[in-house]
Amino acid sequence: LPFDIINTCVFILFILLVYLVSKKIAIKQYTITSLVIFVLLFWFLAPVPNQILYWVVGRSYLWGVVYLLAYLLVYFLTVHKNFAWWQKIILFLFVLLLGHRGLIGPVSVCGALVIWYSFNIKEFKGNAIPLTLGYGMGTLTNILAPGNLERLQVDAVGTSSITLMTIVKTFFSYKVLYLLLFVIVLMWIFRKEELKKFCTKNALLLFALFWSVIAFSGVFRPSTRACVTTEVLSLLLLVSICNDYLNQKWKIRIIAV
Predict the structure, then answer these.
(1) How far is CA 220 from CA 20, 32, 72, 146, in A?
(2) CA 114, CA 41: separation in Å to the nearest integer?
(3) Other Cβ atoms closer than 10 A to 13
(4) What are the start-end ranges of the E strands in 88-246?
């Protein structure tokens, strides 16, 4: 019973964070209708929802995504500001904790940050420094934790038995990712200018999605449950497209379907 209560509160926090992060990445005003679309699509398209939402063993995946969304929200809210030195220390420690508690999910965002600041080195200043270094160090301490190292070693020993079959199974577990790619192809054919604006606005999340697919499909332990991070990132981007480029009538039709 205590776990059910806590897990329910975490799921509510997950929805709240989705709404707050989506408001930051949306070009137009993010509506409640768009949030309803997100919740419905997540509920019906999330990989093994019974395991990641209800099972005790699967809580790490839902909770890990919550830590990931919390970091994205903090990043988008503070990256263009310049706090005092003591505020930067607090910010550094807070995002370090988020990175350490986020399972393998933070690897995708860290990879995205490396790409982003490699091409935008002049923006690596102010709050961007503690936000990036703190989260990166937290992610590194998580990966190098004894339990995670042992898991990776076990996977390495059993590579011949899990590599092809497990990776293929993982790719078949994606639903929202393929739906997002299909919508992006349609935009590339019919709405290239709007696609360019979308990619510019959401470059960091697109990079994170790219690294997420790599990390959870091959580099780290591939599994259906692990797809939840990739699917949530895909869903954030997909619903952002719906919010910015579909009118209210089309949103209602999607909910009805």
Answers:
(1) 29, 36, 22, 15
(2) 30
(3) 15
(4) none
Put residue 103 in one of left, alpha, beta given phi > 0 → left and psi -120 to 50 → alpha.
Answer: left
> Residue 34 is encoded by which pair of tokens?
């768009």
Structure-token pair, residue 134: 């703190």
Digit-coded pLDDT (tens) for 229-248: 888 888 889 888 888 887 76
Note the pLDDT tens digit of each residue in 162-178: 555 556 666 667 888 88
Residue type, 60: S
Classify the C-alpha dihedral 116-118-120-121 as positive or negative: positive
Neighbours of 223 (CB within 10 A): 19
The answer to pTM > 0.90 is no
Share of the chain residues as helix, strand and coil, in percent rounded to the nearest 5: 80, 0, 20
Residue 61: closest CA among 71, 70, 51, 72 = 51
Handedness of CA 27, 29, 34, 35 (dihedral sign): positive
